[in-house]
Amino acid sequence: MLRTTRTALAKRLFLTLLVVWLMALSFAGGTISGYSIRTAAAAEERPSEFAVFWEAWDYVVAHFVDRERVDFTAMTYGAIEGMLASLGDEGHTTFLPPDALELHQTSLEGSFEGIGAYVSMEEGNVLIVAPITGSPAEQAGILAGDIILEVDGEPVEGKTLDQVIFLVRGPANSEVVLTIRRPDTLEPLTVPITRARIEVPSVSWTPIPNTDISYIAISQFTAGVDLELEAALREISQLNANQGIILDLRNNPGGFLQQAIRANSQFLPQGDLILIESDANQNQTVHRSRGLGYARAMPLVVLINEGTASAGEITAGALKENERAILIGETTFGTGTVLNQFGLSDGSAILLGVTNWLTPDGNLIKGQGITPNLEIPQPATAKHVNAELLSKLTPEQFSAIEDAQFLKALEQLGVDTYATPFLNAAPHDFVTSE
Fold first, then answer.
1. How far lies 412's CA from each of 204, 218, 268, 321, 403, in Å?
2. What are the phi and psi torsion angles at 160 (to 5°)?
3. Tell me, what DSSP letter sits at residue 255?
4. Domain 203-336+354-419 listed as CATH 3.90.226.10
5. Tell me, what's the pLDDT at 7?
6. Which CATH superfamily is domain 111-199 in?
7. Are 422 and 393 spatial neighbours (Cβ–Cβ below 8 Å)?
8. Residue-range domain boundaries for the chain
9. What is the torsional sign of CA 83, 89, 95, 99?
10. What is the pLDDT of residues 372-390, one digit of tens each?
């Protein structure tokens, strides 16, 4: 699996007319000889500006010299991608061909077949944000900060992030060869990786040895996160670990809106404002904390970074602006819109941003992100702690931790990290909530 830190679910439709345009494109057909334009929409339904598209299309079909390269499907898909790119909703509103749509529909199931790495697009480069612990990518030596240059010998320059992800993902037990550039090496590296089925727990947690602090990581807001988080918090409450919680949302690409609302409800008093949705007509929908919460009074520190997106940003923003938590790390990605999926007639689909998300104070998330209370930048190559590492922490391992954001969170919760508090601690078993 290759999961993108830029990929998050949450946006909303712009104009019904855009769908008409897409349908017109998807039904364009014919042959090179005797070519004629066919559309699903009558000419009078199309905006006048769209006529120039058909002019360009006809010139290509009639005059382009390499006839064998005139591919109606590729031309149509390219036109759709260009139209959506013009909306400026980078990394969110997107077009999915049928094969990519199938992969997308499995992206929130919590298991995947692929190499197991989080990626993002940085200044035109496909960057490994982090390999997943125990994944084929990690076992093959892939590191945070590696830049993908080629997939099976095919250059990725000029491709979208989704296109690269599609090249890298594949069935378990098959091999993919990545050519990467590593910051500290002069020559590109060739790394063969055998894909596998990756099981990713959405919620993992552990008590931090020799403290009354618990660490919780939410990797993605998949279906069932609310139940997993509730189970974890119940166990934490039974430990009498009341010094605080470190909630790690770093590299969380988002997920289902309702899961984020339910997760926030575990930490925020009932009735506190979590999120405001605003559509193109300025109609607003308000979401508030509801039900029971098992960690509404416990001290809370939240870790965020540039890979925190979508539903992860909703959670961070609500906890910050309700003054419920201290945020530590880096400004989040800024993908605060709701995505609706609109299927097209050939099995492809568009994911279209249809509403903006506003924080409790009315701040727009899209393009802005959520800023931390304490900014602690660290390089992409810095290894983050995780529940498995912390559960078996030794004094030597603690002294070698390079995760400055995590160490600052400990300090905020009253732990003197310079005193190496884990010296006499016995390792705890790793816990993943069921």
1. 22, 20, 19, 18, 15
2. -75, 165
3. B
4. yes
5. 32
6. PDZ domain (2.30.42.10)
7. yes
8. 111-199, 203-336+354-419
9. positive
10. 999 999 986 678 899 988 9
